[in-house]
Amino acid sequence: MKVLALAGDGIGPEIMTQALLVLSELEKFGFKCKVVSMPIGGAGYDAYGDPLPAETLKEAADSSAILLGAVGGPQYNALPRELRPEQGLLRIRKELGLFANLRPAVAHEELLDSSSLKASVIKGLDVMIVRELTGDIYFGEPRGQRTTDSGEREGFDTMLYRDSEVARIARSAFEIAQKRSFKVCSVDKANVLDTSILWRQVVSEVAKEFPAVSLSNMYVDNAAMQLVRDPHQFDVILTGNMFGDILSDQASMLTGSIGMLPSASINTDGKGLYEPVHGSAPDICGTDQANPLAIILSLAMMLRYSLERDDLAKKIELAVKSVLQRGYRTPDIKQVGCDLVGTRFMGQLVCEAL
Predict the structure, then answer these.
(1) What's the pLDDT at 260?
(2) What is the DSSP letter of 113?
(3) Which of 268, 271, 274, 278 would you call most buried, defined as having the most Cβ atoms within 10 angstroms of its Cβ?
(4) Is the bond leading into 262 cis (omega within 30 degrees of zero)?
(5) Using the 8-state DSSP alphabet, how is residue 258 labeled?
(6) Are 73 and 84 in contact (CB under 8 A)?
(7) For the stretch 99-123, what's the b/e string if a residue is b when 16 or more beta carbons lie within 10 angstroms of its beta carbon?
């Protein structure tokens, strides 16, 4: 098996180093794979003038799974839109057909006090957001800017979904729900948007294929409120690209730190790109303050969903839990009475726990 490591920008290289050290620790359990490193995002632009270099895409197509650090940085803000680091990430998702984004929000018992919500509200929280990733307003055409007849500038984007795209992501959500609590809440804005009316119709049709799974529908504004008011009512949340982008970040903060949460983007063949949900954090780049646990947990998801080694995924997750139970914290999850450690030492602790 071959794993492609895309460290990217900002804190990406720092946390990727720790994830690959954890991956190498798995050799003691008989697991071996080839790791290839390539640039993406700003690093891709710096090296090749392209946020998704052709060689990077070729390696991605030839790999069993992909592990990504982060992309982006203020030094690239003045670039034309098509050359900005984020375009590399959008393009690799599109090129590989990574249509299903899985973003778990799990409240670790040891970090309940890190959340801005009461511990009683989030204790035991375990929500899976299934977000469609290759359609919607981020990819719809036409899009751009123009000048009206009156001389005003206006920007426009197109929110667009085909029924086949909705059906595909809906089936993924229902299949995941069958392995969890048999509940799916589909989030849309069907009271305003024609796109969402189609979304709700197709999801309801797909639901008939999964009679054991209960389906509910919720408008996105209400869902945002309910995630804070009573997050335990949700198990699997199914939604589109833009709404999922917003709700998954909101859900991540229920758990106390965006630095703790992994994600997976998977295609129909089971190939996936795995990445922490946090950004490149240029303000702490090079300071040894970044939390590597999200990318380490993304590594666990990679083993579970693409490499079919659920046993090793569980070992990594238990190792992370062990380190947290022993009271070690990076700055983003610091708590009174706990030992504050840096990126490198946190990665070392997880390796030792393994």
Answers:
(1) 86
(2) G
(3) 274
(4) no
(5) G
(6) no
(7) bbbbbbbbbbebbbebbebeeebbe
Q: What is the Cα 230 distance to its own chain's centre?
A: 22
Paired tokens of 86: 């984020």
Say yes or no to pLDDT of 70 above 90. Answer: yes
Phi and psi at residue 92, in whole multiples of 5°?
-70, -35
pLDDT tens for 199-227 read 999 999 999 999 999 999 999 999 999 99
Task: List residues with catalytic annotation.
Answer: 138, 189, 221, 245, 249
In terms of Cα–Cα distance, which of 72, 19, 7 is closest to 291? 19
Q: What is the pLDDT of residues 120-166, one digit of tens each?
A: 888 988 999 999 998 999 889 999 999 999 999 999 999 999 999 99
Ranges 112-121, 173-182, 211-220, 333-342: which has the least confidence: 112-121
Is the torsion defined by CA of 235, 239, 245, 250 positive or negative? negative
* Measured distance between the N- and C-terminal CA atoms of the chain, rounded to whole angstroms: 21
Strands 100-106 and 126-132: antiparallel
Residue 124 has φ and ψ, to the nearest 5°, of 80, 5
